[in-house]
Amino acid sequence: MMVLNTSQFSAIRGERMNKSELTQIDDVAKADLKQLLMQYHTSSNGLTSQAAADRLAQDGPNTIRNVKKRSEILVFIENFTSMMAILLWISGIIAMAAHMVELGIAIWAVNVINGCFSYWQQHAAQKATDSLKKMLPSYVKVRRDGQSLRVNTEDVVTGDLIELQAGDAVPADARIITSANLEIDESSLTGESVPVDKTPEYHHDQGEFSQDNMLFAGTVTTNGTALALVYATGMDTEFGRIATLTQGQKKVVYPLQRELNHLTRQLTIIAMVIGIAFFGLAIFFVHYPVANSFIFALGMIVAFIPEGLLPTVTLSLAQGTQRMAKRHALLKNLNSVETLGETTVICSDKTGTLTQNQMTVNHLWLAGNTYDVTGTGYVTNGKIMAGNQAVSLEQDSDLTTLIRIATLDNDTSVDEGTSNEKAKILGTPTEAALVILTRKAGEDRQALTKQFERLGELPFDSKRKLMSTITKTPAGNWLIYTKGALGSELAACDRILDKGVVRPLTEQDRQRIVAANEQYAREGLRSLAFSYREVTADDPLVGTKIADYTPQTAETHMVFVGLMVMSDPPRPEIYDAVQKCHRARIRIIMVTGDSPVTAKSIATKIGITSANARVISGDELDQLSDDELRQALKGEVIFARVAPEHKFRIVSMCQKNGEIVASTGDGVNDAPALKRADIGIAMGVTGTDVAKDAADMILTDDNFASIVSAIEEGRTVYSNLQKFLLYILNSNVPEAAPSVVFLLTRGLVPLPLTVMQILTVDLGTDLLPALGLGIEKPEPGMMDQPPRPQNSHLLNRQIIWKAFGLYGLVASIISTCAYFFVNYVHGWPNVALAASGSLYAQATTMTLGAIIFCQIAAAMNCRTQISSVFSVGLFSNRRIWLGIVVEIVLLGILMEVPLLQEIFNTAPLNSAEWLFLACIPIPLFLLEEGRKLLVRHLRVRSQS
Ligand code: ATP
Questions:
Q1: What's the 354 CA to ligand 1 centre distance in angstroms?
Q2: At what angle do helices 290-304 and 732-744 cross, to 10 degrees?
Q3: Which residues line ligand 1 (CB under 6 A)?
Q4: Which of 210-214, 489-493, 512-516, 742-746 is least confident?
Q5: Ligand 1 centre from 360 Cα, in Å?
Q6: CATH of the domain spanning 6-69+136-246
Q7: What region, left, alpha or beta, does residue 442 occupy, with left being phi > 0 and alpha being psi -120 to 50 degrees?
Q8: Which CATH code is given to the segment(s) 731-944?
Q9: pLDDT for the residue numbered 663
Q10: Of 524 and 33, the one with more pLDDT
């Protein structure tokens, strides 16, 4: 589902809704539900699969089309209208006017080639980004053929019955059939940020979207559950209609792009100033003709403007995000690549992110009995095997009650499929573990749900950490079944079921339960507590309508029944990932809803913290001042039994401590923290639509290790951009140096490199190996370095020094020597330097060749910052080698083809000259390897 800009919706909503549209929504809202179901040829069982398929074929997918896409031709033309391109167009005209027609045509040709290349890069980057979007389809629960199933949002059709719960995006316009505690965030349509209550009853205040029993696509469920009938999909929804009006939004410019734009602008200004200065000097100092001086100055300008920079960087970023996607991390915008490399702290959930989210119940605790259902103990048809003893459920009525609550106070279905398939879970792994246990215990859930009619529910929310259902027994009594975190349950209970007898819950009982629970938690096990309440004749709830049941009134005076304790082992790859974080000086802060003891046990087991780490619970956190919390966050700390709302504060205080924070989240209440974090990370498998929408990155496998891979990839992409920048900039110096020689000697030394040759290097041969640098693999030790300092610049002093003072200077000296070498062989200094003719062409060709061969060495040297290139594999980057080969072939063609010889002022080189060129890269490469070795050596010494 496309997400549009909220303010745009609000701004135009006054214009868009005419009276007839309002009436149409109102008609659906008011219609009799039975008739409405009939009108859409559906029933309480939903559509049949066949009817849904037919309707999909007829109405098309439930998607918002981009109706105002920018014309591809316009995008193409834009690549020929940049300042640099305009300069080249004008230069071409001037060259032609000054009777240098070939030069004029050549300049234009170079401009066209460069424009096409940029367009191709832009196109490739767009394709890469688009393919990422397709990798994360969104799903919705619908009822078809009487069964709940998950379908792709695009496949929702009119007449479908959708089942929504907190965190789900509303996929289409729909009329509510039933709901419980339903709250919808309609800010995307109305601009109103406070969620609104929705019920199946029709109430209509004045204004748009004010019908209480209607749901609109593009809005999200923030609380409760609902069953609703879809009456409009895709472009027929209100969202679709507005989208038509608001499409064609402004392009977003990311900070990295802004920095690059700024850099390009600065370099352009420098280039212009140098160009104008050279223009003046050529005319007045060297007495060069005006047109020639202009073309000469143009050479300087072209040399210094980094024209291919932005598209190449965008492509490199896009390719980086594709590589991350392969490692299960989808980035929603390219900008996050940069932030990933700066990350200093990861606030991570435990369940499912650090652990496998594969729950197995292995202990049952009741007041009068405990059952170990692991190892030799297990549950089998109607019996619990505890050691060698088989206990029938009928023998232990407390156990029967426990299993009944676990069965009925449960919204998850598990389709175990065939023996070769993994069980398909529609719901949460925690509840699935209960379903599997109760099934093994011989409970027939289907029959039981028919006998015990569900009247209503108080859905789970991670703040109160409880979930309740209200059920009618076959005898007509009402029962409230509750399950949840032990602390919340104990607060709700005042009685206990003990060997079939309900008695008051004493302080001693409480201590016994907590002690038993802690024992399990110390082993890293996670527990759920179960309770019930019978709404008897004297119960204050008697006479209360189900819709008016609230957690405050219903989840109190409960009877405590027992605990189900389950294991959720750490992910196997987590140990390595955590060690990697430690080496990369990235701290991990576990923020979990689970109990403090379980949290600490798991954190120490997987190496996140030592056993001395401080554990802060949600309640304690509420008591801490901001300063105290900031202090605590500087040390080893775990947050347990916290609500997602707490996460926002933790992230904010970390940021106040100067940290760059990545934070994970999956639920609807995690959204503020995900938005607040520098990198919000949502779970792709278990995450809600709301969390995914708020996040910057989505993990397609919910795995913490994928965050670490993404950080590694983020650091790599950024360092590759720096390598690329170093490579591009260092050739500017040898391109400019010959002109400086020409000027300083007042033309006594003829131009050692012609303008066309400068264009060849800058717009032709330079870019090919540079593309290869964009895909370099991570340098060894990349994750042994601390994170990049915040707000450090892509182009830093080190790169400037290396580009201009080291690589550039050396290449300038070598290329100038090459020029003089040819002249020397032909008699210089006894004869004057050739200013035209074949010797001049040969000498300039040598300058050009020397620059290209210096670039070959530079391409290799840029591959690593301080590691040896051999450690990443001399031939491991094929694209660089391909670029080098093409570069040499291109040079050969320029020398050998007569027409090109004329345009580029080139001449064939003899074998001695080729040998001279071939000798350039190896010493340069070995010298740089030596320098890197020295730097590594000094680093080790300074660290020891
Ligand atoms: P994490 O925050 O690391 O993902 P978590 O899953 O334990 O851990 P929450 O989902 O906030 O965190 O759950 C908090 C607690 O609520 C759990 O520890 C458990 O005791 C209880 N709980 C979890 N799921 C349910 C559920 N479906 N019904 C009732 N109680 C639940």
A1: 15
A2: 150
A3: 349-351, 428, 430-431, 460, 462, 465-467, 483-485, 528, 592-594
A4: 210-214
A5: 15
A6: 2.70.150.10
A7: left
A8: 1.20.1110.10
A9: 95
A10: 524
